[in-house]
Design brief:
D-amino Acid Aminotransferase, Chain A, domain 2; Anthranilate synthase
Length: 632
C-alpha cells in the first residue's frame, strides 16, 4: 500500500531548519510541525478501528462516524431507487457521499472536567520507541525521562497550559501534581505531565475548553504567534480535525476530551494520517523526521493490514508534492480586517444597451460583459467569506447603472471594479482602457434555449503570430491547491502579488540616456501547484493546445480561480478540463503547441513561456516529483 506525503523528508528537514531561525530570532519558543500522509484507498472503517484497538490500545481512543447515507437509510428505503431524492448507495461498511469517519487511538487527554468542577489536562511532549528487550525498554524509558530536549518541550507546554487554565480557574488552584512521568503504550514511551485546577464559580466546562483550545501540545508557544507561523510552514493547509479535540460535554457539567492524534480520517476520497512533533532549539532535524514516522507507523500499518485482509501491514511513503523553501514563502501576517470582495468587468457603453440588437447574444448586458455571472459570483463569494448584509444582484445592478450615468460616453472601453467590503458597503471604480489594451476579440456567447454549436478556439485567438504573443515567466514557488484564497476574488492577493514581485513585473525598469530597456518585463506569471500541475496566471486562466485540435484547461481542483470566461468556454465546448503537469507543458511547448490565457476583461490571447531563459528542465522540473500523467 502506498501513502503520499504532503512533504518529503528533505522538505520537512528544510522546514525544521527554518524553524530554528525563527526560534533564534525570538519569534517562538516551540513550534509543533506536522505533515499528512494520504492514500486513495479506503479500508472498512469499523474494521480499521477494531484493529487499532488491538494493535495500538490507548486510553483515549474514539470512533466517530457521520454518514448521510446511513442517516437517510430509512427515508431511502421508502423512496423509489430512481427518485432524485434517493441517497447514493455505497459498498458494505463503505462511506457514502458526504460521509466522514474518524478512527482515533489517542494516548493524550486534552481536558477533563468532573462534576466537582475539577479540571485536569495531561499534555504529552516527549516520545521514544519501545525497546526490543525488557532491559533495552527500561533503558529507553530512563533515557526519555532525562532527555534534555524532551524536558524542554514538556516544560514549555506545561507553562502554556498553566497559563490557559489560569484564565478560568480559581486563583491559586492551578497545580502540577505529576511533572514529566513516563506512560508506556504498545509502541512508544511518552513523557506526560498532569496539570490540575479548580474552575472559578463564574466558569464552566465549555469556557474552560474554549480558553485552552486548540491544545497547546499541538501548537507550541507562544500560541497565537506560533499558529501563524504554522500556517505558513504547513502551506496554509487546514489540519481539519487532526490536532483538535474529540469528546463529550455532559448535562451534569462534566466533560472529557482527547487530543486527536494517532488517527485515521476516512471519506469518499480515501484515508489520511497526520503526524508531527515539537521543534525546539535543541531539536535535531533527522530525529524529528524519524519521530513523525514513528507516530504515524501504527495507524498506517493498521490501514495496510485492513486493505490486505490481514496478510500484510507493509506500506511505503512517496512524495508527490514540491519542496518549497520557507525563505521563499510570505511570512505570517495578521488577518486583514478590511477584506474586500470584488469583480472586475469590461464596460463598453455602446454594447448591450436595452433595445440594441443582439444585446444578449454578444455577452454584453447594459454595456457590461458577462454581467449576470459577475454579479452572481460576487454575491456567492461574499456569502462564503462572511460578508454581512450582502446586497442581492438586482440591487448591485441598480448601483452599477446609476454610476454608469455619470461616466463619459467618449471612452469606448473601460475597466470597472465593483467591490463589497466586509460590512456589505458597495464601491464602484472605473478606469478607461488605453487604446490597444482591450480585447481584440470576445467570444460570441448566445443566451438561447437551444444548445449552441461548439465554439472554435481558433476563432477567438489574436491574429498575432507566436513571436508577438505576450511573454510570461514561470514562478519559482508553487501555490497550494487547497489554498482557499485562490477561489475568490478578494483584496487579499498576497499569492499573486508575491509572484509578480518575484518576476519583477511591478518593479520600475531603470533606463539610461533615454534608451529603451534591453529586456522587457514579462506580461504575467504562470503558476503551478505543490504537485507540479499547471494552474493559472496571476490575471487569467490558461489552456494548452493538445495536438489533436482541442484545448485543455486545468481543473479547479488544481487550485485556481473559477474564471467566468473559462466557465463560458467550457460550456461552449471550446475547452475541456485536464491536469497539465509541468513536464507535459514543457514537452508541448517544445513540440510547437500553443498556450493561451483568457479572462473576461482581455478576452483570449496567446502567451509565450521562454523555456531557455528559465532553464526549466534543470532548475524547476528537476525539483518536482512527477505528478500522475494526464492523457494530453
Amino acid at each position: 500500500m502506498q501513502f503520499v506525503s504532503d512533504r518529503g523528508r528533505e522538505h520537512y528537514l528544510s522546514d525544521i531548519r527554518a524553524i530554528g531561525d525563527f526560534l533564534a530570532a525570538g519569534e517562538s519558543y516551540e513550534v509543533c510541525l506536522t505533515t499528512t500522509f494520504r492514500s486513495p484507498e479506503c479500508p472498512p472503517p469499523l474494521d480499521l478501528y477494531r484493529r487499532l484497538r488491538r494493535t495500538n490500545p490507548t486510553p483515549h481512543a474514539a470512533y466517530l462516524r457521520f454518514d448521510p447515507r446511513r442517516l437517510c437509510a430509512q427515508a431511502q428505503a421508502q423512496t423509489p431507487s430512481d427518485s432524485p431524492t434517493s441517497v447514493p448507495a455505497a459498498p458494505a461498511d463503505g462511506i457514502g457521499p458526504g460521509g466522514v469517519v474518524i478512527c482515533c487511538s489517542s494516548p493524550e487527554r486534552f481536558m477533563r472536567v468532573d462534576r466537582s468542577r475539577a479540571v485536569e489536562c495531561k499534555p504529552i511532549k516527549g516520545t521514544a520507541a519501545r525497546g526490543a528487550t525488557p532491559a533495552e525498554d527500561a533503558a529507553v524509558a530512563i533515557a526519555l525521562r532525562t532527555d534534555e530536549k524532551s524536558i524542554a518541550e514538556n516544560l514549555m507546554i506545561v507553562d502554556l497550559i498553566r497559563n490557559d487554565l489560569g484564565r478560568v480557574c480559581a486563583a491559586g488552584s492551578v497545580s502540577v501534581p505529576k511533572l514529566m512521568h513516563i506512560e508506556t503504550f504498545q509502541t512508544v514511551h511518552q513523557l506526560v505531565t498532569t496539570v490540575c485546577g479548580q474552575l472559578d464559580p463564574r466558569e464552566d466546562a465549555i469556557s474552560a475548553v474554549a480558553a485552552a483550545f486548540p491544545p497547546g501540545s499541538m501548537t507550541g508557544a507562544p500560541k497565537a504567534r506560533t499558529m501563524r507561523l504554522i500556517d505558513d510552514l504547513e502551506l496554509q493547509i487546514p489540519r481539519g480535525v487532526y490536532s483538535g479535540a474529540l469528546g463529550f460535554f455532559s448535562v451534569d457539567g462534566s466533560a472529557d476530551l482527547n487530543v486527536v492524534i494517532r488517527a485515521a480520517f476516512l471519506d469518499t476520497h480515501g484515508v489520511s494520517v497526520a503526524a508531527g512533533g515539537a521543534i525546539v532549539a535543541l531539536s535535531k532535524a533527522q530525529d524529528e523526521w524519524e519521530e513523525v514516522l514513528l507516530k504515524a507507523r501504527p495507524v498506517m500499518s493498521a490501514i495496510a493490514a485492513c486493505m490486505s485482509a490481514g496478510t500484510s501491514d507493509a506500506y511505503e511513503i512517496v512524495t508527490r508534492r514540491t519542496p518549497r523553501p520557507l525563505h521563499e514563502r510570505p511570512l505570517a501576517q495578521p488577518t486583514s480586517t478590511s477584506l474586500d470582495v470584488f469583480e472586475t468587468m469590461l464596460y463598453a457603453p455602446t454594447l448591450g444597451s436595452e433595445g440594441a440588437a443582439g444585446a444578449r447574444a454578444n455577452g454584453f448586458e447594459h454595456g457590461f460583459y458577462l454581467l449576470p455571472m459577475h454579479l452572481a459570483r460576487l454575491v456567492r463569494s461574499s456569502a462564503a467569506l462572511g460578508v454581512t448584509c450582502v446586497p442581492p444582484p438586482a440591487r448591485l445592478l441598480e448601483h452599477l447603472l446609476e454610476a454608469a450615468k455619470r461616466w463619459p460616453a467618449s471612452d469606448p472601453l473601460s475597466r470597472v471594479r465593483l467591490s463589497l467590503s466586509t460590512n456589505g458597503e458597495c464601491r464602484i471604480e472605473r478606469w478607461p482602457m488605453p487604446a490597444g489594451s482591450g480585447p481584440s476579440r470576445l467570444p460570441n456567447l448566445p443566451r438561447g434555449l437551444r444548445p449552441a454549436p461548439p465554439l472554435a478556439m481558433e476563432a477567438l485567438l489574436d491574429t498575432h503570430d507566436a513571436e508577438e504573443a505576450r511573454r510570461v515567466v514561470l514562478d519559482v514557488c508553487p501555490v497550494h491547491s487547497c489554498d482557499p484564497s485562490l477561489v475568490h476574488k478578494t483584496s487579499a492577493r498576497h499569492v499573486y502579488d508575491a509572484a509578480r514581485a518575484r518576476a519583477g513585473i511591478d518593479k520600475p525598469i531603470a533606463v539610461a540616456d533615454g534608451r529603451a530597456p534591453t529586456v522587457a518585463k514579462p506580461f504575467d506569471v504562470l503558476l503551478y501547484n505543490e504537485a507540479g500541475e499547471l494552474t493559472e496566471c496571476c490575471i487569467a486562466n490558461v489552456a494548452l493546445e493538445d495536438g489533436r485540435g482541442g484545448w485543455a484547461t486545468p481543473p479547479l481542483e488544481c487550485g485556481l480561480l473559477p474564471g467566468l470566461l473559462r466557465a463560458e468556454l467550457l460550456m461552449a465546448k471550446a475547452l475541456y478540463e485536464a491536469v497539465v503537469t509541468l513536464d507535459e507543458l514543457v514537452a508541448a511547448l517544445r513540440d510547437g503547441r500553443r498556450l493561451v490565457a483568457f479572462n473576461s476583461l482581455r478576452g483570449v490571447y496567446l502567451i509565450r513561456l521562454d523555456l531557455q531563459s528559465q532553464m526549466l528542465d534543470r532548475k524547476v522540473l528537476g525539483s518536482l516529483q512527477p505528478a500522475t500523467p494526464s492523457k494530453l
